[in-house]
Amino acid sequence: MASHLLPTLLLLLALAVSWSAAGRGATSPYLRPLPRETLSAPLADDADGATPPAVHISMVGTNRVRVRWITEDDAPVTVDYRLQEGMYGELSTGSTSTNTSPHFTHSIYYYRCSGNPAREFSFKTPPASLPTKFVVIGDLGQTGWTNSTLNHISQSNYDTLLLPGDLSYADLNQPSWDSYARLVEPLASSRPWMVTEGNHEIETIPLIESTPFKPYNARYHMPYEESASPSNLFYSFDAAGGAVHVLMLGSYTDFDASSDQFKWLQADLAKLNRSKTKWLFALIHAPWYNSNKAHQGDGEDMRKAMEETLYAAHVDAIFAVHVHAYERFASMYNGKKDQCGPLHITIGDGGNREGLAKKYIDPQPSISLFREASFGHGQLQVSNDTHALWSWHRNDDDEAVVVDSVWIASLLSNPACQKKN
């Protein structure tokens, strides 16, 4: 039987600048290794059509997670779970129309899908207060370098992973989605993965399939309803008990002033209580600032439409991918350095099959503080209400090498920025 995505689990399980860097305005001379082969993650030898592979979880509100998986055959849409010390005794049932929400506490939970005892998973619930740690990656794909990235991420004691687009690089080859899901399952089943769409998720065929994002929307149901978004392509969520608010914005759906996304963004920001929400981050696919020769100007229309809104809201940092390299910019607004603007970081270097974007604009613009065309991933440790540590970890060496880092002071803690409102 051809593999298909069953409507298996929209299941809600309740849970509860100053800077230091490798160089100011630096372009790394690092010599990059050769590309690696594309991987294919097969089903286990003992798997049958009802065995639940490709398990992954995502956050839904501050105290719940959604568990999803794929089976070839019909299988019970159930999850049973237990605490670290204890026997299986809890059962939750979900479907495309029904959700259940048992209350979880901040701990480690073990769980099984579809009542299948052959595969047991575990996840750690995110913390209910600061500190909290995010991993940020993009343009992940499924190559040997992807595997290196995933291995390094697995060594990080992170709480939530953020991936703003270009996940599987399936590009209409649906079995590649299945392979990708199996490849990332060890990580995606144990920590929430919060994702948005990139250009490789569009997947349309002229005259045959005109509706974009069908496989992506079927496989990655994000908590857009909970943030009052009309679309799975853009949403927001809270972390650390609401101390952190994350905007997951869509670069490949409408974003001008008359669009649903723009209207939703304004409404979402208007709801924030900044006496409680100390940090505000945004993720997009195509970067608004870019000194790489690849994808020049791809994010410019979105920047013109949304930058003023995010600046007025005191967004602390904007993370983008799309360009297959790493670059950190100054705090920016309207093309210039601005201490009250968001820090801009491009991190589209997860391990894609298309290779690295090695050609940069020369001379390096003054707004670009560090850039390197290497595979890697980022870590954002939000330590307290006022300071967070960003670090970029080069993975090319098959070792976790921290190459760039910066302490970020929240804009809410900068009196000069408060005077602007």
Automatic annotation (TrEMBL):
<protein>
    <recommendedName>
        <fullName>Purple acid phosphatase</fullName>
        <ecNumber>3.1.3.2</ecNumber>
    </recommendedName>
</protein>
<feature type="domain" description="Purple acid phosphatase C-terminal">
    <location>
        <begin position="341"/>
        <end position="404"/>
    </location>
</feature>
<dbReference type="GO" id="GO:0046872">
    <property type="term" value="F:metal ion binding"/>
</dbReference>
<dbReference type="InterPro" id="IPR025733">
    <property type="entry name" value="PAPs_C"/>
</dbReference>
<dbReference type="InterPro" id="IPR008963">
    <property type="entry name" value="Purple_acid_Pase-like_N"/>
</dbReference>
<keyword id="KW-0732">Signal</keyword>
<keyword id="KW-0378">Hydrolase</keyword>
<dbReference type="InterPro" id="IPR004843">
    <property type="entry name" value="Calcineurin-like_PHP"/>
</dbReference>
<dbReference type="Pfam" id="PF14008">
    <property type="entry name" value="Metallophos_C"/>
</dbReference>
<dbReference type="InterPro" id="IPR039331">
    <property type="entry name" value="PAPs-like"/>
</dbReference>
<dbReference type="GO" id="GO:0003993">
    <property type="term" value="F:acid phosphatase activity"/>
</dbReference>
<dbReference type="InterPro" id="IPR029052">
    <property type="entry name" value="Metallo-depent_PP-like"/>
</dbReference>
<feature type="domain" description="Calcineurin-like phosphoesterase">
    <location>
        <begin position="133"/>
        <end position="326"/>
    </location>
</feature>
<dbReference type="InterPro" id="IPR041792">
    <property type="entry name" value="MPP_PAP"/>
</dbReference>
<comment type="similarity">
    <text>Belongs to the metallophosphoesterase superfamily. Purple acid phosphatase family.</text>
</comment>
<dbReference type="Pfam" id="PF00149">
    <property type="entry name" value="Metallophos"/>
</dbReference>
<keyword id="KW-0325">Glycoprotein</keyword>
<feature type="signal peptide">
    <location>
        <begin position="1"/>
        <end position="22"/>
    </location>
</feature>
